[in-house]
């Protein structure tokens, strides 16, 4: 039964999360764990990093587990997409945080100052 008082955004989110547990995705949690373990084995230099589960889970909402694994590989190993987001130094995330901080200071200086304090 779908909640009706949560509004459109939450209702859509509820449906999407529920899709992972549908008959098509029986064992979705197990599949997610298997994909993450397989990626760690496939690319031991990166291994597993917190945050990969969210990305992989979103992929699993739209495709079967094996396809989600290969999309994860293509996404994380491609210089065009998320390469170095999950490396041991988190170098790309640090660069993105620096860019975000600079933009925040220039566009919303009061908010930036508040967040620093």
What can you tell me about this protein's structure?
The protein has 117 residues and is an all-alpha fold. The chain has two domains: 1-86, Helicase, Ruva Protein, domain 3; 88-117. It is built from six helices and no strands.
Q: Biggest sheet, open or closed, and with what strands and sense?
A: none
By CATH, the architecture of the largest domain is named: Orthogonal Bundle
Record field, number of beta strands: 0
Series of H and E elements: HHHHHH
Number of helices: 6
Indicate the multimeric state: single chain
Kindly estimate the percentage of residues that lie in beta strands according to DSSP.
under 5%
How is the CATH topology of the largest domain named? Helicase, Ruva Protein, domain 3
Number of domains: 2
CATH class categorisation of the largest domain: Mainly Alpha
Give the helix level as a range of percent.
Answer: 55-70%
| CA-based shape | elongated
Low confidence ranges: 1-25
Brief write-up:
Helices cover 64% and strands 0% of the residues. The protein has 117 residues and is an all-alpha fold. It has 2 domains: 1-86, Orthogonal Bundle (Helicase, Ruva Protein, domain 3); 88-117.
